[in-house]
Design a protein that fits this description.
Helices cover about 50% and strands about 15% of the residues. By secondary structure, the chain is α+β, with helices and mostly antiparallel strands.
Amino acid sequence: MKILVYLALLLAMALPAHAVGESLPALWEKATRLESEGHAVEAALACRRLLALNPGYAPARDLLAKIHISLKLPPPATDWRDRAAGFFPPDRLAIGGSLCLWTGLFGILATLLSPAWGRWRLPAFLFLPAGLAALAFSAAIDPRIARSRECVVTLPGGAPVYPAPSVDDSRTTARVPDGTPLSFRSRSGRWTAVTLPDGRNGWILSEALTPVVPAEQS
Protein backbone atom coordinates (compact mmCIF):
# COMPACT_ATOMS: atom_id res chain seq x y z
CA MET A 1 0.00 0.00 0.00
CA LYS A 2 2.90 2.37 0.71
CA ILE A 3 4.09 1.84 -2.87
CA LEU A 4 0.62 2.77 -4.18
CA VAL A 5 0.54 5.95 -2.09
CA TYR A 6 4.04 7.00 -3.20
CA LEU A 7 3.13 6.31 -6.84
CA ALA A 8 -0.03 8.38 -6.48
CA LEU A 9 1.87 11.33 -5.04
CA LEU A 10 4.57 11.11 -7.70
CA LEU A 11 2.11 10.94 -10.59
CA ALA A 12 -0.01 13.77 -9.23
CA MET A 13 3.00 16.07 -8.91
CA ALA A 14 4.97 15.01 -11.99
CA LEU A 15 2.24 14.74 -14.62
CA PRO A 16 3.57 16.86 -17.54
CA ALA A 17 1.77 20.13 -18.23
CA HIS A 18 2.56 20.67 -21.91
CA ALA A 19 1.38 23.76 -23.71
CA VAL A 20 1.69 25.19 -27.17
CA GLY A 21 2.22 28.78 -26.10
CA GLU A 22 -0.95 30.28 -27.65
CA SER A 23 -4.66 30.19 -26.89
CA LEU A 24 -7.17 28.31 -29.03
CA PRO A 25 -8.88 31.48 -30.41
CA ALA A 26 -5.50 33.03 -31.25
CA LEU A 27 -4.37 29.88 -33.06
CA TRP A 28 -7.61 29.64 -35.04
CA GLU A 29 -7.39 33.28 -36.09
CA LYS A 30 -3.75 32.73 -37.05
CA ALA A 31 -4.51 29.56 -39.03
CA THR A 32 -7.34 31.10 -41.05
CA ARG A 33 -5.35 34.27 -41.72
CA LEU A 34 -2.27 32.39 -42.88
CA GLU A 35 -4.35 30.09 -45.09
CA SER A 36 -6.12 33.05 -46.70
CA GLU A 37 -2.75 34.72 -47.34
CA GLY A 38 -1.41 31.61 -49.07
CA HIS A 39 0.94 30.47 -46.31
CA ALA A 40 -0.33 26.90 -46.32
CA VAL A 41 2.51 25.26 -44.37
CA GLU A 42 2.40 27.81 -41.54
CA ALA A 43 -1.41 27.54 -41.46
CA ALA A 44 -1.16 23.74 -41.19
CA LEU A 45 1.28 24.08 -38.28
CA ALA A 46 -1.14 26.45 -36.51
CA CYS A 47 -3.95 23.93 -37.04
CA ARG A 48 -1.84 21.15 -35.55
CA ARG A 49 -1.04 23.27 -32.52
CA LEU A 50 -4.71 24.10 -32.14
CA LEU A 51 -5.62 20.41 -32.30
CA ALA A 52 -3.01 19.75 -29.62
CA LEU A 53 -5.12 21.99 -27.39
CA ASN A 54 -8.51 20.69 -28.56
CA PRO A 55 -8.43 17.55 -30.73
CA GLY A 56 -12.20 17.69 -31.12
CA TYR A 57 -12.22 21.11 -32.82
CA ALA A 58 -13.81 20.17 -36.15
CA PRO A 59 -13.12 23.44 -38.05
CA ALA A 60 -9.38 23.01 -37.49
CA ARG A 61 -9.52 19.41 -38.70
CA ASP A 62 -11.44 20.46 -41.81
CA LEU A 63 -9.01 23.28 -42.56
CA LEU A 64 -6.02 20.99 -42.03
CA ALA A 65 -7.52 18.43 -44.43
CA LYS A 66 -8.10 21.20 -46.99
CA ILE A 67 -4.50 22.37 -46.64
CA HIS A 68 -3.20 18.83 -47.09
CA ILE A 69 -5.12 18.59 -50.36
CA SER A 70 -3.64 21.87 -51.56
CA LEU A 71 -0.12 20.67 -50.62
CA LYS A 72 -0.78 17.27 -52.24
CA LEU A 73 -0.14 15.49 -48.95
CA PRO A 74 -1.96 12.40 -47.61
CA PRO A 75 -4.99 13.13 -45.38
CA PRO A 76 -4.06 14.03 -41.79
CA ALA A 77 -3.77 10.92 -39.67
CA THR A 78 -5.78 10.40 -36.49
CA ASP A 79 -5.46 7.66 -33.90
CA TRP A 80 -7.36 6.36 -30.89
CA ARG A 81 -5.85 9.03 -28.64
CA ASP A 82 -7.33 11.84 -30.73
CA ARG A 83 -10.76 10.19 -30.68
CA ALA A 84 -10.58 9.47 -26.94
CA ALA A 85 -9.46 13.03 -26.14
CA GLY A 86 -12.50 14.30 -28.03
CA PHE A 87 -14.79 12.40 -25.65
CA PHE A 88 -12.73 12.76 -22.47
CA PRO A 89 -11.03 16.19 -22.25
CA PRO A 90 -7.60 15.38 -20.74
CA ASP A 91 -7.44 18.50 -18.56
CA ARG A 92 -10.81 17.79 -16.95
CA LEU A 93 -9.90 14.13 -16.59
CA ALA A 94 -6.61 15.07 -14.90
CA ILE A 95 -8.38 17.45 -12.51
CA GLY A 96 -10.97 14.81 -11.65
CA GLY A 97 -8.25 12.20 -11.17
CA SER A 98 -6.25 14.52 -8.91
CA LEU A 99 -9.31 15.31 -6.79
CA CYS A 100 -10.14 11.63 -6.53
CA LEU A 101 -6.58 10.75 -5.62
CA TRP A 102 -6.20 13.42 -2.95
CA THR A 103 -9.63 12.59 -1.54
CA GLY A 104 -8.44 9.02 -1.13
CA LEU A 105 -5.17 10.08 0.50
CA PHE A 106 -6.83 12.42 3.00
CA GLY A 107 -9.58 9.87 3.62
CA ILE A 108 -7.01 7.23 4.51
CA LEU A 109 -5.23 9.69 6.79
CA ALA A 110 -8.51 10.54 8.51
CA THR A 111 -9.33 6.87 9.11
CA LEU A 112 -5.88 6.34 10.64
CA LEU A 113 -6.15 9.34 12.96
CA SER A 114 -9.76 8.89 14.04
CA PRO A 115 -11.39 5.50 14.72
CA ALA A 116 -14.78 7.13 14.09
CA TRP A 117 -13.89 7.34 10.40
CA GLY A 118 -12.98 3.66 10.21
CA ARG A 119 -16.02 2.71 8.14
CA TRP A 120 -14.77 5.03 5.35
CA ARG A 121 -11.41 3.29 5.03
CA LEU A 122 -12.42 0.97 2.16
CA PRO A 123 -14.03 3.76 0.05
CA ALA A 124 -10.94 5.90 0.67
CA PHE A 125 -8.69 3.08 -0.54
CA LEU A 126 -10.84 2.72 -3.67
CA PHE A 127 -10.37 6.40 -4.51
CA LEU A 128 -6.61 5.87 -4.88
CA PRO A 129 -6.60 3.43 -7.85
CA ALA A 130 -9.50 5.33 -9.43
CA GLY A 131 -7.53 8.59 -9.27
CA LEU A 132 -4.37 6.91 -10.54
CA ALA A 133 -6.26 5.36 -13.45
CA ALA A 134 -7.80 8.72 -14.41
CA LEU A 135 -4.42 10.48 -14.28
CA ALA A 136 -2.69 7.74 -16.28
CA PHE A 137 -5.44 7.73 -18.92
CA SER A 138 -5.40 11.53 -19.20
CA ALA A 139 -1.64 11.42 -19.78
CA ALA A 140 -2.01 8.64 -22.36
CA ILE A 141 -4.58 10.50 -24.46
CA ASP A 142 -3.36 14.09 -23.94
CA PRO A 143 -2.56 15.31 -27.48
CA ARG A 144 -0.08 17.83 -26.10
CA ILE A 145 1.98 14.90 -24.85
CA ALA A 146 1.37 12.71 -27.91
CA ARG A 147 2.32 15.57 -30.26
CA SER A 148 5.36 16.58 -28.22
CA ARG A 149 7.42 14.37 -30.55
CA GLU A 150 5.74 15.58 -33.74
CA CYS A 151 7.34 18.10 -36.08
CA VAL A 152 6.55 19.58 -39.48
CA VAL A 153 8.87 20.20 -42.43
CA THR A 154 8.80 23.98 -42.86
CA LEU A 155 11.73 24.42 -45.23
CA PRO A 156 10.45 25.82 -48.55
CA GLY A 157 10.78 23.15 -51.20
CA GLY A 158 10.99 20.33 -48.68
CA ALA A 159 13.99 18.62 -47.13
CA PRO A 160 16.20 15.66 -48.07
CA VAL A 161 16.36 12.66 -45.78
CA TYR A 162 19.71 10.96 -45.16
CA PRO A 163 20.46 7.50 -43.76
CA ALA A 164 23.02 9.01 -41.36
CA PRO A 165 23.71 12.49 -39.92
CA SER A 166 25.96 13.55 -42.79
CA VAL A 167 25.34 15.72 -45.86
CA ASP A 168 25.96 13.52 -48.87
CA ASP A 169 23.55 14.00 -51.76
CA SER A 170 24.52 10.64 -53.21
CA ARG A 171 23.14 8.93 -50.09
CA THR A 172 19.80 10.73 -49.93
CA THR A 173 17.08 8.19 -49.19
CA ALA A 174 14.05 10.43 -49.73
CA ARG A 175 12.87 14.00 -50.00
CA VAL A 176 9.84 15.09 -48.01
CA PRO A 177 7.80 18.11 -49.16
CA ASP A 178 7.22 21.07 -46.88
CA GLY A 179 4.18 20.66 -44.67
CA THR A 180 4.85 16.95 -44.06
CA PRO A 181 4.36 15.89 -40.42
CA LEU A 182 7.12 13.69 -39.00
CA SER A 183 7.90 12.03 -35.69
CA PHE A 184 11.30 12.86 -34.28
CA ARG A 185 13.22 10.23 -32.34
CA SER A 186 16.43 11.94 -31.22
CA ARG A 187 18.83 14.78 -31.97
CA SER A 188 22.54 14.83 -32.67
CA GLY A 189 24.06 18.26 -33.13
CA ARG A 190 22.28 20.01 -36.00
CA TRP A 191 20.60 16.75 -37.05
CA THR A 192 17.28 15.20 -36.07
CA ALA A 193 16.42 11.53 -36.40
CA VAL A 194 12.86 11.21 -37.73
CA THR A 195 10.29 8.64 -38.74
CA LEU A 196 8.61 9.34 -42.07
CA PRO A 197 4.85 8.88 -42.63
CA ASP A 198 5.57 5.59 -44.43
CA GLY A 199 7.47 4.24 -41.41
CA ARG A 200 11.01 4.68 -42.72
CA ASN A 201 13.65 6.26 -40.49
CA GLY A 202 16.25 8.82 -41.46
CA TRP A 203 18.03 12.05 -40.56
CA ILE A 204 17.05 15.63 -41.46
CA LEU A 205 18.78 18.92 -40.73
CA SER A 206 17.05 20.38 -37.68
CA GLU A 207 16.62 23.82 -39.26
CA ALA A 208 14.20 22.26 -41.77
CA LEU A 209 11.81 21.22 -38.97
CA THR A 210 9.47 23.02 -36.60
CA PRO A 211 8.05 21.14 -33.57
CA VAL A 212 4.29 21.13 -33.11
CA VAL A 213 4.77 21.66 -29.38
CA PRO A 214 7.50 24.33 -29.01
CA ALA A 215 10.61 22.98 -27.29
CA GLU A 216 10.48 25.59 -24.51
CA GLN A 217 6.90 24.47 -23.71
CA SER A 218 7.41 20.69 -23.73
